Amino acid sequence: MSRFFVDAWDPAYGASFEAGGGPAAPSSARVEPDHEVPAVDWRAIGPRPGVRTPDVVLLVDGVRRIDASVWTAEDDGGSYPGIAASYAAGVVRCDLERGAAQLAGAKVGRGLFTASPSAQDVVAGSVHYPVHRVGGTGELPAAVQGPLTALEVEVSGAARIDGDLLVVDGPLRNRRQLPRTLGYIKTQHSQYLDARLTAVVTGLAPGERSPVFRLGTAWGGWSWYLRLPVAAGAPWAGIVRVECSAELDVTEAIALADLSLVTLPRFASTPYKDPRAPQNLVPIAGLERRLRALLGDARLLHRVLTAAARPPR
After folding, report:
1. Residue 255 has pLDDT above 90, yes or no
2. What's the rounded mean pLDDT across residues 267-278?
3. If you average pLDDT over residues 73-102, what whole number do you get?
4. What is the 3-state secondary structure (H, E, C) of 76-122?
5. What count of other Cβ atoms lies within 10 Å of the Cβ of residue 51?
6. What single-letter DSSP state applies at residue 17?
7. Is the pLDDT of residue 93 over 80?
8. Which residue has the higher pLDDT, 192 or 224?
9. Has residue 4 got a pLDDT over 60?
């Protein structure tokens, strides 16, 4: 029989590689692999001499939670679904010279997301869910991402200093204008490269990266893969995809790729501490726990929303 591997991640978190149809399922995105190294010469790249970690690394992440599903009753007898959601964003400042990390900022937001034209803000004491109009009912959960991203940009912008490196947990999307910023994608949903180039990626040793390539998607940009410190295992074990702005020239993108290779492995988690090791970086894991606590008690908020929905007597 062919070999099989057990993914190191706790199954409750999915798998570190989730491609619909398996690892051979290709993405439809246009890929330009020849910018740093010609595709015919693709090979693993290790740390380059003279590249050192930045003194300060900022890691930003956000969490969201649906506090209640709601329905509106319109004057014409119709009804619209909606969700009341809480979300929070925060940034951890890692001072690599001092070996210290601290929460540099965090903010919480809430919202009532619905397509209803008549919905109004929900206010109950100090709890406030402003209305966010959504184009269609199928977009409700995804609609939370926009305000959450704006909150991430706000908290990270307030914490930045000259010469730092900002690492965003997830794709950059509309944060590509931020300087010295990396998108950190720990779960691989799509396979962008052909079989021969993919073999270079799955053959990476810990502390090596692939050459930089360019993705021609709507949110396209420069991208590369690297393997974090990990015990031998499945082909995609410990592999993350990193991206930076398409507005950079290839020399700048390669410089950031080299910087990521000497920086990100320092934050890799270990299996006995984190069920998503090594991809779920240690500062991010701590930040997620802190942000979830800031969202407030889910049961209490559900009761507040239920009470606010009751008609006055």
Report:
1. yes
2. 84
3. 91
4. CCCCCEEEEEEEEEEEEEEECCCCEEEEEEEEEEEEEEECCCCCCCE
5. 14
6. B
7. yes
8. 224
9. no
- The helix/strand/coil state of 150 is helix
- Of residues 174 and 7, more confidently modeled: 174
Is pLDDT at 6 greater than 70 in this prediction?
no
In terms of Cβ atoms closer than 10 Å to its own Cβ (0-12, 13-18, 19+), residue 307 is exposed
- 23 with 199: CB under 8 angstroms? no
Tell me what pLDDT residue 14 has.
53
Rounded Cα distance, 111 and 125, in Å: 15
Report the helix count and the strand count for the chain, using DSSP H and E.
6, 12
CA pair distance 57, 94, nearest whole angstrom: 5
Instruction: Tokens for 148, please give them.
Output: 């959450």
Query: What radius of gyration do the chain's Cα atoms show?
Result: 22
Which residues, 6+ apart, have CB-to-CB distance to 163 below 8 Å?
54, 55, 56
In whole angstroms, how far apart are CA 194 and each of 21, 34, 96, 125, 185? 15, 13, 37, 56, 19
Q: Is 57 helix (H, G, I), strand (E, B) or coil?
A: strand
Give the CA distances from residue 55 to residues 96, 100, 154, 255, 278, in Å, rounded to whole numbers and listed in that order.
Answer: 5, 11, 22, 16, 23
Three-class SS state of 300: helix
Percent of the chain with pLDDT over 70: 89
Q: Which residue has the higher pLDDT, 82 or 223?
A: 223
Chain mean pLDDT for the chain: 87
Q: How far apart are CA 143 and CA 114, in angstroms?
A: 9
Determine the residue type at 159. Answer: A
108's CB contacts (< 8 A; 6+ apart) are 86, 87, 88, 294, 295, 296
